[in-house]
Amino acid sequence: MTKQQWFQDLITQLDPSNVKIDEALNLHTMTRMGGIADLFVTPETEDQAAFVVQYSYENDIPLLLLGNGSNMVVRDGGVRGIVLRLENLNKITIVGNKVIAESGADIIDVSRTVAKESLTGLEFACGIPGSIGGAMAMNAGAYGGEVQDVIVQCTVLTPRGEKLVLSKEALELGYRKSVITKKGYYVLSAEFELRPGTQEEIDTKIADLTFQRESKQPLEYPSAGSVFKRPPGYFAGKLIQDSGLQGKGFGGAEVSTKHAGFIVNKNNATATDYISTIEMVKKAVKENFDVELELEVKIVGENQS
C-alpha cells in the first residue's frame, strides 16, 4: 500500500483537510526541527482517532502520536507511516471539583482554566509545555507537584483502537513513566479531582511559578524542554553546568547558558545537531561524574539519507 492509498482510505472517515501527505514536522515540534511525515493526521473526534489507530494496526502501518511536539526530537529523515496529532481534541469541562480534559488540550490551559474557577491542585502545571496526553504518559510534574497527585482516571485507546478507562492505580504512574508508554496506549482524555481554593492564593502561586519559569528557562529559543531525567541524588542541569558545557554544542544547537538542563535551537539547528549535542553532554557527564544521564525527551524518526 502507498501513502496515497492510506490517504484515500482515511478520508472515508475524516475530512481531507485533516489528512496531509508529506507534511513537514518542523512546523509541529517545539524544537522547530524534524523531517517529513508520510501522513499527518488530525482527527476531529474520538471515533475518528479510534478509526486511525485501528486502521494503522490492521494494515501494519507505523503510527506515531506526536502530542504537541514539546518533548520530542524528530530526526531529519522524518517519519515513515502515519503521524497522529490530537490537537483538535482539546475540550476542557469542569463539573464541581472535577475537570475532564481531552488529550490535545495544553496542560497549561487546563491549569489556568481551573484556576479561574478557584480550584486548586493543578498550579504546578501552569508552565509545563505539553498536552494532556503527553502529561499523562510522562506523569508530568514541576515545582513539587505531579499528575498522579490529582488524577482520577484516564481514557485511552489500545494499539488495536479499543477504548479503555484506566483508574489511577491501573495507570502505574511513577517518575516520568506510566502504563501508557509501557503498553503503547493513546490518551483520549483525563479526569482530575481538585479542591476549592482561595482565588488570591491560587493567583499568587501561579504568578510566582510563572516568574520562576520565565526567569530560569530559555523560553526565547525553540527547545524540547528539559532534556534529561533527574538522576538519583543529583540534578542533571547542575552536572551539565559543572562540566562546563553551557554555550557548547554542534551546528545551531547548544546547551543553554540560562539553564544547562535545556538544549536550544539557537540558529536553525538540525535534529542531527541537537542529537549530537545530547550525546556530547551524556559523554562529558559520564566522564566527569560517572553518572549516566537518561533522556526525558523522546527521539523518533529516521536519519537523513
TrEMBL record:
InterPro entries per UniProt: FAD-bd_PCMH (IPR016166), FAD-bd_PCMH-like_sf (IPR036318), FAD-bd_PCMH_sub1 (IPR016167), FAD-bd_PCMH_sub2 (IPR016169), MurB (IPR003170), MurB_C (IPR011601), MurB_C_sf (IPR036635), Oxid_FAD_bind_N (IPR006094)
Domain of life: Bacteria
GO MF annotation list: FAD binding; UDP-N-acetylmuramate dehydrogenase activity
Active site annotation, chain numbering: R176, S226, E296
EC number: 1.3.1.98
Cofactor dependence: FAD
Keywords: Cell cycle, Cell division, Cell shape, Cell wall biogenesis/degradation, Cytoplasm, FAD, Flavoprotein, NADP, Oxidoreductase, Peptidoglycan synthesis
Primary residence: cytoplasm
GO cellular component: cytosol
Pfam families from the UniProt entry: FAD_binding_4 (PF01565), MurB_C (PF02873)
UniProt GO BP: cell division; cell wall organization; peptidoglycan biosynthetic process; regulation of cell shape
Pathway this chain belongs to: Cell wall biogenesis; peptidoglycan biosynthesis
Reaction(s) this enzyme catalyzes, per UniProt: UDP-N-acetyl-alpha-D-muramate + NADP(+) = UDP-N-acetyl-3-O-(1-carboxyvinyl)-alpha-D-glucosamine + NADPH + H(+)
Annotated compartments: Cytoplasm
Domain FAD-binding PCMH-type: 33-197
Family: Belongs to the MurB family.
Record function comment: Cell wall formation.
HAMAP family: MurB (MF_00037)
Protein name (database record): UDP-N-acetylenolpyruvoylglucosamine reductase
Organism from which the protein derives: Psychrobacillus glaciei
